[in-house]
Amino acid sequence: MPELPDVEGFRRIMADHAVGTRIADVVTLDTGVLHGVSVRRLRATLRGERFEPPRRVGKWLIAPVTGGAVVVLHFGMTGSLDWGDGPDGRQRHDRVVFVVGDGELRYRDQRKLQGLWLLRAGAQLERLLDGTGPDALEVPRSRFTELLAARRQVKPLLADQSVVAGLGNLLVDEILWRGKVNPRAPAASVDADALHRQMRRVLRSAVRAGRVPPRPSWLTGRRDEPSGSCARCGTTLSHGRVGGRAPCGARTASPVDDPRESGKPVP
DNA sequence: CGGCGTGTTCAGAA
DNA sequence: CTTCTGAACACGCC
Fold first, then answer.
1. What is the pLDDT of residue A21?
2. What are chain A's domains?
3. Rounded to whole angstroms, how far apart are CA atoms A165 and A172?
């Protein structure tokens, strides 16, 4: 689920509930999500400190605490951050719980593809983020245009976090479909200005909704159905995989020889 | 059992 | 050298 807008939603949850009040405890329910930190050290470092306002870069959630440490969360494909008023309501895949203020913040992740880092603010944090491109909501149009001047296929390029950070499979499909751009087209061949505009539109509406398919009208929703159809022309959508990723909702595999596959213009 | 996936990463092929 | 593909990671759901 988590792409830029989802992580932005998690950031807000944290900002609204957990900033400024003392961290009473840190409960690690599954050590499998900890990267380079022990249960003991995580707890000892955070207990008694307070979260400072969290920020986000691409799909990374960065939560500094008083005392100079930084909690970094990545949500992989199945992660989320949830607020609860007490220990009641914890779920099976809650991996780390921060007891703070009048409730608790729960880092949940079914598949544990990513996890949690505890770093020192500064060089250590920068090293982790090194190689992460500019955030998709921050990148200026001029810079975006430069990044698109590449021979690579446009879909894998946009989904590459080292190029632009925050876009995933769903968002890229939606952006390209709205822009009537073939996902396999060479990046340099597409109208960068128009694509930048589409990207911002798509991101804005998803961020406002706080989640990634904000409405069922998105391309994603239509592909769920056995014979999803194009919202523009009604043509039945076909799909193939680009850069090793199938469009979301794809149930049947059919080769893409028809230009009208997910994301391609339909006159 | 087999296939799939809104995440990243890596080896090896084109 | 660059670009792309497929597998791997871990887990639940068809």
1. 95
2. 4-129 (3.20.190.10), 134-267 (1.10.8.50)
3. 12
